[in-house]
Amino acid sequence: MNSLMVFTRDLRVDDNPALCAAANAGTMSCLFVVDDKFAGAPGASQRRQTFLLQSLSDLDQSLRKLGAHLEVVYGDWSQQVQQRALELGASNIHLSEDYSFYAKRRLANLKSWCCDNNISLHAHPGITAVPPNSVSPAGGGEYKVFTPYWRSWLKTSKRPVLSAPASITATAAPSSSSHLAPDPFPNSSLIGGESEGYKRLQHWLKNALGFYAETRDYPATDETSHLSPYLHFGCISPLRLVEQASQLPGSEPFIRQVVWRDFYAQILNMHPTASRHDYRDRGDVWQYDPAAYESWVEGNTGFPLVDAGMRQLKAVGFMHNRVRMVTASFLVKDLHQDWRRGADYFMSQLLDGDVASNYLNWQWVAGTGTDSNPHRILNPTTQAQRFDGEGKYIQKWIPELSDLTPSQVIDPPYELREKTGYPLPIVDHHKQVEMFKQRRLAANQDSKVAN
Ligand SMILES: Cc1cc2nc3c(=O)[nH]c(=O)nc-3n(C[C@H](O)[C@H](O)[C@H](O)COP(=O)(O)OP(=O)(O)OC[C@H]3O[C@@H](n4cnc5c(N)ncnc54)[C@H](O)[C@@H]3O)c2cc1C
């Protein structure tokens, strides 16, 4: 029996239920389609593309050790999968189930094509630690608030973590040509692939996990795991990560963060359009101010923590979680701009750009998402005082402020801004958030009247 294993966001041989099922079923081939809907599309991230190609190359090497190889083709995903299945005379197709609108539509189309062609399609877990449908509240639907989800997630029984198949009986002889030699994108320090991902995971668990609770909020020391791109592409298994971390003391705060990833996946699973539509409609009427938006993108707002974050994002495709919250909050609650604009920009830059985590975190910050306090305001100056008190993170990304003292750097006085060329604040934070609150209040009153 011939099977086709279609890799998607599960670029690993370890703990890959789809790969194990295909390998156990008989002879098989492995395919990855570089989908032309994403590769090279406007807004696509060159960094993620490079990371993807590195991951595919690493996966190909791992598969060759098991007796198979990875075929990588470019084009329309559905057409390519169907064509390869017919060429192989495949009776089964295996893949990992994904939850975005696009992934769901793609799977539904493939399902109906498989039905017409008498091919069995098997969608497996593996993209999240716990599949979205395994944790649901008593009344059905999705969990809307994190803490009850977390409690229920802890109690849910998990599938066994799987080793890589011992060997694979491949349908075709491994080709020796390697068509996967990407030019590394110059500004990313992380190399894609399962080998790199697990190396990083082991090193981080051994050396940093124990301090995570105390260090995780401080961007200057930057001691979080940086595993997000490996999780996004499935180079490491989220369930393997949880299994390994949970054997170590003090791992709960870290696992809790990883579970946020599952939490957002279960929301996207129920509301696949949540990347475009308010999860909770607050009646917001967004402003469109290209000059203010441009200042935000370029890190020239005159608010040092916001500008440091935006400059880091552009330079290396990463931003610390605390700073992501502050920069996102600034765009929405100080500049009154639509969260979708900010989220799309993040998506174009982030190495870990992920539909569920990015758009639903943006909605959390905007107050249209799952935050139980939708009126939360993050003051960029007090956030800098609390989380970058010595201004080291700010000075790293805003070199013109590097000679200032810690107390000056958080909110430089007028004459030092003039001297260093660092801009004045483009808005008055307190006035802007007051205006934002008034607008929301008015929108809510209007909607009550309309109801
Ligand atoms: C506005 C905004 C946009 C974001 N966009 C993304 C995105 O596109 N992709 C992405 O992976 N994360 C996103 N996050 C979540 C978080 O900022 C990153 O996962 C984290 O900074 C990655 O660094 P790390 O791997 O060192 O995290 P660690 O602190 O080491 O956490 C371990 C893992 O837990 C998961 N995680 C941690 N925090 C969150 C969170 N708040 N939501 C979901 N998962 C989380 C990630 O998979 C992360 O790799 C966003 C957060 C905000 C506020």
Description:
It is a single chain. With 451 residues, this protein is an alpha/beta fold. The protein has three domains: 2-126, HUPs (Rossmann fold, 3-Layer(aba) Sandwich), CATH 3.40.50.620; 128-162 and 194-272, Serine Threonine Protein Phosphatase 5, Tetratricopeptide repeat; 290-450, Orthogonal Bundle (DNA Cyclobutane Dipyrimidine Photolyase, subunit A, domain 3). It has helices spanning 17-25, 46-66, 77-88, 101-116, 146-155, 194-207, 212-215, 228-232, 238-246, 252-270, 290-298, 304-316, 321-334, 339-349, 355-366, 380-387, 392-397, 406-409, 414-420, 429-450, and strands spanning 2-6, 27-35, 70-75, 92-96, 120-124. The chain has a five-stranded parallel beta sheet, with helices on both faces. Helix 2 (46-66) links the parallel strand 2 and strand 3. The protein is globular and about 75 Å long. It starts with a strand and ends with a helix. Bound molecules: flavin-adenine dinucleotide (FAD). Flavin-adenine dinucleotide (FAD) is lined by residues 216, 224-228, 231-232, 257-258, 260-261, 264, 321, 324-325, 328, 346, 350, 352-354, 357-358, 361-362, 365. Flavin-adenine dinucleotide is lined by residues 216, 224-228, 231-232, 257-258, 260-261, 264, 321, 324-325, 328, 346, 350, 352-354, 357-358, 361-362, 365.
